[in-house]
């Protein structure tokens, strides 16, 4: 048990070299506010279920979430509101958001 704790402590002290590692806590504190209005998570409540369909992003694989956000940013996906939002996100933001919303492949 102690050994596990030490490993965990070391891992969390690891330097920024792991930059693309998503940080769910950071996403939770700083970034999801701009997503919940539409994606309505946590709690799976969609804000505008009648107006338009907003896909569920919680529980997707993180890699899928990141690639979708990159595709919006690059203009490969064309939904106007998601393009605007993705354009404001850095790669680190995307990784953090994916870590928050996503569920790693099992
Ligand atoms: C203004 C409403 C709105 C906001 C705010 C919003 N989204 Fe979206 N999002 C949508 C809609 C609508 C779609 C579906 C677009 C389409 O059909 O391409 C979507 C699609 C997505 C997808 C692709 C899902 C899939 O199954 O392919 C991801 C990932 C995503 N959003 C993440 C986010 C994240 C992360 C945030 C916050 C940074 C966010 N969205 C904020 C409306 C929104």
Overall CATH class: Mainly Alpha
Distance between the termini: 24 Å
Q: How many DSSP-defined strands? A: 0
Main pleated sheet: none
SSE pattern, N- to C-terminal = HHHHHH
The small molecules bound here are: heme C
Helix content: 40-55%
Radius of gyration: 15 Å
CATH topology: Cytochrome Bc1 Complex, Chain D, domain 2
**Secondary structural class:** mainly alpha
Key phrases:
106 residues, mainly alpha, Cytochrome Bc1 Complex, Chain D, domain 2, 0% strand, binds heme C
Tell me briefly what this model is:
By secondary structure, the protein is mainly α. The chain has 6 helices and no strands. It has one domain: Cytochrome c-like domain (Cytochrome Bc1 Complex, Chain D, domain 2, Orthogonal Bundle), CATH 1.10.760.10.
Can you tell me about this structure?
With 106 residues, this protein is mainly alpha-helical. The chain has one domain: Cytochrome Bc1 Complex, Chain D, domain 2. It has helices at 2-13, 24-30, 33-39, 62-74, 80-87, 91-101. It binds heme C (HEC). Heme C is lined by residues 34-35, 37-39, 52, 54-55, 57, 65, 68-69, 77, 79, 81-82, 85, 97.
List the SSEs and their pairings:
Elements: H1 2-13, H2 24-30, H3 33-39, H4 62-74, H5 80-87, H6 91-101
The chain binds heme C (HEC).
């Amino acid at each position: 048990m102690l050994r596990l704790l030490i490993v965990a402590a070391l891992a969390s002290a690891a330097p920024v070299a792991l930059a693309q590692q998503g940080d769910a806590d950071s996403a939770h504190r700083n970034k999801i506010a701009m997503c919940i209005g539409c994606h309505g998570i946590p709690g799976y409540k969609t804000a505008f279920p009648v107006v338009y369909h907003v896909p569920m992003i919680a529980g997707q694989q993180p890699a899928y979430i990141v690639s979708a956000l990159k595709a919006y940013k690059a203009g490969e996906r064309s939904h106007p509101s998601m393009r605007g939002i993705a354009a404001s996100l850095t790669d680190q933001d995307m990784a953090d958001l994916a870590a928050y919303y996503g569920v790693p492949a099992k």
